[in-house]
UniProtKB/TrEMBL annotation:
Residues 68-276 form the AMP-dependent synthetase/ligase domain. InterPro entries: AMP-dep_synth/lig_dom (IPR000873), ANL_N_sf (IPR042099). SUPFAM superfamilies: Acetyl-CoA synthetase-like. Keywords: Ligase. The keyword Transport does not apply. It comes from Alteromonas salexigens. This is AMP-binding protein. Gene3D superfamilies: N-terminal domain of ligase-like. Belongs to the ATP-dependent AMP-binding enzyme family. Pfam families: AMP-binding (PF00501). PANTHER family: ACYL-COA SYNTHETASE (PTHR43201), MEDIUM-CHAIN ACYL-COA LIGASE ACSF2, MITOCHONDRIAL (PTHR43201:SF5). The keyword Nucleotidyltransferase does not apply. It comes from the Bacteria.
Length: 400
């Protein structure tokens, strides 16, 4: 059992592959993880090794009983190490790579840009799929705000890029759709929801430049990908995430019988995790679930395409009414307001950037003004996987 801290380097890739080859189960962690969080994982899992780009240290001698199916542990939140880890098998990794390659137009002569952390399931899936077909990978921690980023895209003939919503928002601010990138053949987006206007902008750019834009959906609990929206549907369904990846299946767990009613999205496939791990005793045996309850509220249209409408945990009750924070945030963003919505029961928190001009939001928020708190932030607090840290927004609001 090893704690494996990874960065955007070939050394980290080699360490990851070496663990898989030698049957050392690694927990993938970002290289900048807080020392306190590292100690929490060490205490929970009683790791034998601590591996980084610069060192391999023996940190424990406890002998573990480990299920033979277990290949890898990953965190789900990208935050500070609280909570359980996701246990993945070699079968999970291979099945998901095979599914992704069945719909993405990747080939062995491609060079992809990998700028997402390897400790994040989306980033790791890009690595795994391209290694599977023998393609080339450029590891980079450059931001779209760095001039070298654009030089790299052009000089290395990058065939594909992948990113989360915040990353694409940076690309759009840097006029990505006006760049001449003839080698770029397709782009993929997952890890959260772009606004429909942003999706349409990227889809129109892809169509005009003979590229393909894939909107995708996944979770660490499903190794990475569960759904993708075919590029020819993106303009018609900019809010959807599409159909299950090859080999996967969806169903909705509804409280009622109406077929048009949204419900919790459940997924079945060979990429569904073995289970969760909270401590070293749980490494010994797993009983994988047949269906993964995603925690996402979704609808499925007549074509079988899924649209995510919210998270079970992203609901609050204000003045007796249930509020879908994801849906409200989407409405505000679609109406031109760059905001993030958080909160707890009886208090909606609307976060705005200090340099922005949010305008009049009250008319779009169907909640009594006394229950709404506005918070100005210098920048959006982000997790290491590029997603917005809503828990931190809640904590910051409490201190205002």
């Amino acid at each position: 059992m090893a704690l494996l801290q990874v960065s955007q380097t070939s050394d980290s890739v080699i360490n990851y592959l070496a663990c898989l080859r030698t049957n050392i189960v690694p927990l993938l962690l970002p290289d900048n993880l807080d020392e306190n969080a590292l100690h929490v994982f060490q205490r929970k899992l009683a790791a034998n090794l601590h591996v980084s780009d610069s060192a391999c240290k023996v940190v424990g001698t406890e002998q573990h009983t480990i299920d033979s199916k277990l290949a890898l542990l990953m965190t789900t939140s990208g935050s500070t190490g609280a909570g359980k880890c996701v246990a993945l098998s070699a079968k999970n990794l291979c099945a998901n790579a095979k599914s992704i390659l069945a719909y993405l137009p990747a080939n062995s002569t491609d060079t992809t840009l990998l700028s997402m952390p390897l400790s994040y399931s989306y980033g790791l899936s890009v690595l795994n799929t391209h290694l599977t077909i023998g393609a080339s990978i450029v590891l980079s921690d450059l931001s779209p705000f760095d001039r070298q980023f654009w030089t790299l895209l052009a000089d290395r003939s990058i065939a594909s890029i992948s990113g989360v919503p915040q990353w694409y928002r940076m690309l759009l601010r840097m006029r990505f759709t006006q760049q001449h990138l003839p080698a770029l053949r397709y782009i993929t987006q997952a890890g959260g929801k772009l606004s429909e206007a942003e999706v349409e902008t990227l889809a129109k750019y892809a169509h005009a430049t003979d590229k393909q834009f894939f909107v995708m959906y996944g979770q660490t609990e499903a190794t990475a990908r569960m759904a993708f929206l075919s590029p020819d549907k993106v303009l018609a369904k900019p809010g959807a995430v599409g159909q299950p990846v090859p080999g996967g299946e969806f169903k909705l767990a509804r409280s009622g019988e109406a077929q048009e009613q949204a419900g919790e999205l459940c997924y079945r496939g060979d990429n569904v995790m073995l289970g969760y791990v909270d401590n070293c005793t749980e490494l010994a045996h797993f009983a994988p679930p047949e269906w993964l309850n995603t925690g996402d509220i979704a609808s499925i249209d007549r074509d079988g395409d899924v649209t995510i409408v919210g998270r079970l945990k992203r609901f609050i009750k204000v003045a007796g009414e249930r509020v879908n924070l994801d849906a409200l945030e989407t409405v505000l963003i679609d109406n031109g307001h760059d905001v993030r919505c958080a909160g707890k029961d009886d208090r909606l928190i609307v976060a705005v950037l200090k340099h922005s001009k949010p305008g009049q939001l009250t008319a779009l928020i169907p909640i009594p003004a006394r229950n709404v708190q506005y918070v100005e932030l210098e920048h959006w607090p982000m997790l290491s996987n590029g997603k917005v840290d809503y828990q931190l927004i809640n904590r910051l609001a409490e201190n205002k």
